[in-house]
Specification:
226 residues, globular, Jelly Rolls, alpha+beta, five-stranded antiparallel beta sheet, four-stranded antiparallel beta sheet, A-glucoronidase_C_sf, 2 domains
């Protein structure tokens, strides 16, 4: 892959390993900027085209984070050299599914390869309906809440996202992705925008399996609306 040490300094002044980290973070940022630019075109292109391309960009944004994190984490483990910006392995606002309060049959699941799950684990539902909960302790305000989940091609799981007893998002895992197991190919995200949160609110992800797809999800991410 490369023929010099990870600590070799390139013409840019960066080490090889820091270039790997920085370039993958920059790439993910670029696709998010594409999505924001497309969002600004609402009303200027026909609605069908706007929605179709918007969904594709949303998918690509999510996948850019999956592979940014997977590749950077792999190189971090191989090199044992930290990112000088402390981004790799540190994700502000991210709550791992396995660290949430798991109810009614959600259990930890390993993902292969491990680096395609944040933290190396996800959770899967082993009953008819499962829940995972997290109590918000941050500031009151409006937040985008993202659920990173796995959409396999061997079933159509159903998800709901609650704040307290209020449903703030619901969706079917029915995209046509090219694998029947949780992995980088099937990792995708749903975002509920501008959700009002107050300290003490309980955030719940509810999953309903279908056929061989067990409503597997990786994490939730809570980002304050600018």
């Amino acid at each position: 892959m490369h023929h010099v040490n990870y600590t070799h300094v390139l013409h840019s002044g960066k080490t090889v390993i820091q270039h790997i980290y920085d370039s993958h973070y920059a790439g993910a940022q670029t696709i998010h900027e594409f999505r924001d630019k497309w969002a600004a075109l609402k009303g200027l292109v026909d609605e069908g085209r706007y929605q179709r391309i918007g969904r594709q960009l949303d998918y690509q944004c999510g996948h850019s984070l999956v592979w940014r994190d997977a590749i950077c984490q792999w190189f971090s483990n191989m090199s044992a050299i930290r990112d000088i910006h402390d981004r790799v392995g540190h994700y502000s606002g991210r709550i791992e599914a396995e660290s949430m309060h798991l109810l009614d049959g959600y259990v930890n699941q390993t993902v292969d390869p491990w680096e395609t799950a944040s933290g190396g684990l996800a959770v899967e539902c082993k009953s008819a309906k499962c829940k995972a909960q997290y109590v918000w302790t941050g500031d009151t305000g409006a937040y985008d809440i993202t659920v990173q989940y796995y959409d396999e091609n061997d079933g159509v799981s159903r998800f709901k996202l609650f704040v307290g007893s209020k449903v703030v998002g619901e969706w079917d895992a029915n995209d046509k992705l090219p694998n029947s197991r949780p992995c980088g190919d099937t990792s995708i995200r749903f975002t509920a925008p501008g959700v009002k949160l107050t300290s003490g609110d309980t955030i719940t992800v509810e999953g309903v399996p279908n056929h061989k797809e067990n409503a597997v999800f990786d994490y939730i991410e809570i980002v304050k609306v600018a």
